[in-house]
TrEMBL record, chain A:
Protein name (Swiss-Prot/TrEMBL): Auxin-responsive protein
InterPro entries membership: AUX/IAA_dom (IPR033389), AUX_IAA (IPR003311), PB1-like (IPR053793)
Native species: Cynara cardunculus var. scolymus (Globe artichoke)
Chief localization: nucleus
Family to which the UniProt record says this protein belongs: Belongs to the Aux/IAA family.
Residues of the PB1 domain: 134-221
Subcellular location: Nucleus
Record's keyword annotation contains Transcription regulation: yes
Record Pfam families: AUX_IAA
Source species taxonomy: Eukaryota, Viridiplantae, Streptophyta, Embryophyta, Tracheophyta
Keywords, ordered alphabetically: Auxin signaling pathway, Nucleus, Repressor, Transcription, Transcription regulation
Function: Aux/IAA proteins are short-lived transcriptional factors that function as repressors of early auxin response genes at low auxin concentrations.
Biological process, per Gene Ontology: auxin-activated signaling pathway; regulation of DNA-templated transcription
Subunit structure, interactors included: Homodimers and heterodimers.
Length: 231, 581
């Protein structure tokens, strides 16, 4: 069961009675909080409800164990109670049911068998981008009548972003150099960062840029030079 | 009349025998060979630090130069072993500092090492050369500073994947200016920035430096400086591989790589900016090892790089490589021995990348020397596994992780028994196997019947009954390590195969169906085994034999029960003590 399926099914209403879609992030946080407070004892003991433990089990025998039992080759997932309830509890609407059910992938400890430093590295990248799809920022160009929006996640490098902006605004932005900025062209791309400062695009690594960029502004070169001089 | 060769001659002959197995065999021939051999054994490997005690080791082998120890069970990598379980290096290091003044090499894996121990190492061994701490924890950069400062002839400092308390990057400056012996330095796991000027000077005065693995904090702009200082490098791990738009960085990086004529292995590549990938193209044709498993770049970029590397023997990559990238591998990398494909997003249900069983099938077809596979994917079929097995009977290590537990063959919805059965049947030299997907007792029947060379087996969410475990324990003659989680295996198979347990290094079972009574019985009947029941929640009621155990770790030992067990480990001795007191 993917979280997105759960997301679509769960809606809470606001005071006006209109359903409010709960974001995947909010749902995950609530779910994790419930799970972490669960009494884990229950879930581990559930595993043994089907198993008949008797003292015969401690007997040493020469024959193959289980020769009196007929081993069934089961093709369904009903190996034990836990797994069958995993299939049933896809709605996860009942806390108690989810407690005895096999947890979703995120909750099974140590599965898939990926080491924690590997998980962190890739997830670190995920967390750095916004939840939900797209990372849209407004783009204004000096002299243009209206603003546009671009999805920063569509680009993988500054080159691609510049290409996209140049196509969108039919302008030439030109080449960046550390010393000169965007000298030699009519326009210079700037962005507003998390602190509210206006920065020249291109100084910091791409990943850092897309997490701190709140909006873009393509300035006229003459104005941009003023930006440069003040540095 | 007994006619034998003089001791010196025998010693000289024995010096050519390096494998532990062979050394052990030599020592069993007769008393005098035992004596000669024990005096000239220089390397010791202890696969389970609790199987033997430090004093037993030093008593038998007085002239050791290199010791390798392993601590926690493998499943500790996936957080299945609780905190404080053990694997403490301290008693070993204390004993070695007393008994082996000429010790040169220490290699530890999954052990808890303290700063005090590191300091002791740095001051006890005058000719100390090699320290490898693999997946270790418990120490800080202060301990590293002691090693740097005191080990005059240090050749190798390798912290691979250890968890280090990173207090500051200053420790690196403790290498004295006279230290010029460094051959290998791996600090990739460190979080904080090391002093770059100290690093640059260290690299500059180490003419024998062959392996350098930087941490993420070393910026790309500085990499060319280091490469220019060490053009003799054979293996390089970069730091973060992105920068602003800096054409000067790009050009100096390209030039620096051009100067590295010996470079054969690359790793690192955190935060990759694809536009910088071309910078190391000059090296690609010589590369035998490439680790892009931290690089979240997309398939076309990965494919471009891989197609430039015809001599690749080892490739580690994220599932962003996709089937198309693996097709490129199959076409270009005819010398490939080892492939590892890691999941970029292990926790989402649906694949966001097109990596399927097809990629692995292509590589198995195109790469005749492929021996070792680690593959995470979201779908698998019996026919794909059968094809892989037929293509590559030379596989030695096959670890497949289908991400969804108990996922069946996606084409037929049947269990993957037949597929894995084909793997063990065709790959007669298979030494390591990890199973996943929907599996019944049948697959274990195949494994028991065919996998005679198998040494390590990992099982999760598989099987129907004790018969499965019985097949493995009774059939796999070479089995040394068995780790099982979430399988319906109980007492019967264990108790029917007690003798087997003494021939193995260790057995781990968690979330299975073993009862406390069976553990007690095993413990009583088998004094050469330590039977450790892990009861984290405190829910184990020892009055009831039928009470199930959460986690169980059984290993053979000549050192008796260990004295450093945390409170949550239950043994019969402890219970006896508790009932008496």
């Amino acid at each position: 069961t993917s979280l997105s399926t759960i997301h679509h099914r769960r809606k809470i209403k606001n005071s006006a009675g209109d359903p409010l879609p709960i974001t995947t992030l909010q749902f995950t946080l609530v779910f994790l909080e419930i799970y972490n407070n669960m009494d884990r004892k229950r879930s581990s003991l559930n595993l043994f409800e089907d198993i008949d433990l008797n003292y015969k089990a401690t007997e040493l025998r020469l024959g193959l164990p289980g020769t009196d039992d007929q081993p069934e080759i089961k093709t369904s997932l009903s190996g034990n109670k836990r797994s069958s309830s995993e299939m049933e509890s896809s709605t996860c609407t009942d806390e108690n049911e989810s407690r005895s059910a096999s947890p979703t992938k995120e909750q099974v400890v140590g599965w898939p068998p990926v080491r924690s430093y590997r998980r962190n590295i890739v997830q670190g990248k995920k967390e750095s981008s916004e939840m939900g799809s797209g990372m849209y920022v407004k783009v204004s160009m000096d002299g243009a009548p209206y603003l546009r929006k671009v999805d920063l996640k569509m680009y993988r490098s500054y080159e691609e972003l510049m290409e996209g902006l140049q196509k969108m605004f039919k302008c030439i932005i030109g080449l960046y150099s550390e010393r000169e900025g965007y000298n030699g062209s009519q326009h210079a791309p700037t962005y507003e960062d998390k602190d509210g400062d206006w920065m020249l695009v291109g100084d910091v690594p791409w990943e850092m840029f897309i997490t701190s960029c709140k909006r873009l502004r393509i300035m006229k070169a003459s104005e941009a030079r003023g930006l440069d001089d003040s540095l | 009349m007994v006619y034998s060769l003089p001791e010196e001659v025998l010693e000289h002959v024995f010096s050519f025998i390096t494998l532990d197995k062979d050394r052990n065999a030599v020592s069993l021939v007769c008393k005098s060979w035992y004596e000669i051999e024990r005096w000239c054994r220089r390397r010791i490997f202890v696969g389970n630090c609790y199987a033997v005690s430090p004093s037993i080791m030093t008593r038998r082998f007085p002239e050791v130069r290199s010791v390798e120890l392993k601590g926690k069970p493998h499943f500790a990598d996936f957080n299945l072993v609780p905190e404080g379980w053990g694997g403490f290096a301290c008693p070993w290091i204390s004993e070695m500092s007393r008994a082996y003044p000429w010790l040169e090499e220490i290699r530890l894996k999954r052990m808890v090492v303290t700063d005090e121990s590191l300091e002791l190492i740095s001051t006890s061994f005058k000719n100390f050369k090699v320290l490898v701490l693999s997946s270790c924890e418990g120490f800080s950069t202060d301990g590293l500073a002691a090693i740097a400062a005191n080990c005059r002839n240090l050749r190798k400092l390798d912290l691979r994947e250890s968890e280090v308390m990173d207090l500051s990057g200053h420790w690196l400056s403790h290498f004295p200016n006279t230290c010029t012996s460094l051959e290998s330095l791996n600090i990739a796991c460190l979080g904080s920035e090391v002093s770059f000027s100290a690093l640059e000077r260290l690299v500059g005065r180490s003419p024998n430096l062959k392996i350098l693995r930087l941490n993420r904090a070393v910026p790309l702009e500085k990499l060319s400086t280091l490469l220019c200082r060490a053009p003799q490098l054979v293996e390089l791990g970069t730091g973060a591989y992105s920068s602003g738009i800096r054409s000067d960085v790009y050009s100096s990086l390209s030039k620096a790589f051009l100067g590295c004529k010996e470079l054969k292995g690359l790793s690192g590549f955190w935060d990759v900016d694809p536009s910088y990938l071309l910078a190391f193209y000059s090296v690609c044709s010589r590369l035998t090892s490439l680790n892009l498993s931290y690089a979240t770049i997309r398939s076309p970029d990965i494919t471009k790089v891989i197609s430039q590397c015809p001599n690749l023997q080892r490739l580690w990559v994220l599932d962003h490589v996709e089937d198309s990238g693996l097709n490129a591998v199959a076409l270009s990398c005819k010398d490939l021995r080892e492939l590892r494909v890691f999941p970029s997003d292990p926790y989402i249900a649906d694949a966001n990348v097109t990596l399927t069983e097809q990629g692995l099938v292509s590589v198995s077809e195109g790469c005749p020397k492929l021996q070792s596979v680690l593959y995470f994917c979201r779908q698998m079929s019996n026919s794909a596994l059968i094809t892989i097995a037929r293509n590559r009977p030379n596989l030695i290590c096959f670890r497949l992780c289908v991400i969804e537990p108990r996922a069946p063959d996606y084409l037929t919805l049947e269990p993957l028994d037949v597929g894995f059965g084909a793997i063990v049947e065709h790959c007669k030299e298979l030494r390591r196997l990890s199973l996943s997907g929907l599996l019944t007792d049948r697959v274990f029947e195949y494994i028991g019947r065919h996998a005679k060379r198998l040494e390590m087996l990992s099982i999760a969410f598989a099987g129907n009954s004790d018969l499965g475990l019985h097949h493995v324990l009774s059939g796999c003659d070479g089995l040394r390590k068995l780790e099982i989680r979430d399988c319906p295996f109980g007492d019967k198979a264990l108790l029917a195969n007690v003798a087997k347990l003494e021939t193995m290094r260790s057995l781990w079972m968690s979330s299975c169906a073993v009862s406390y009574g069976a553990c007690k019985f095993l413990s009583q009947k088998m004094p050469m085994l330590n039977v450790e029941v892990i009861d984290e929640n405190g829910s184990l009621d020892s009055r009831f034999d039928s009470c199930p155990v959460e986690k169980l770790y059984i290993y053979r030992t000549v050192a008796g029960p260990r004295s450093d067990m945390p409170g949550y480990i239950r043994t019969i001795d402890r219970d006896r003590v508790n009932t008496i007191s």
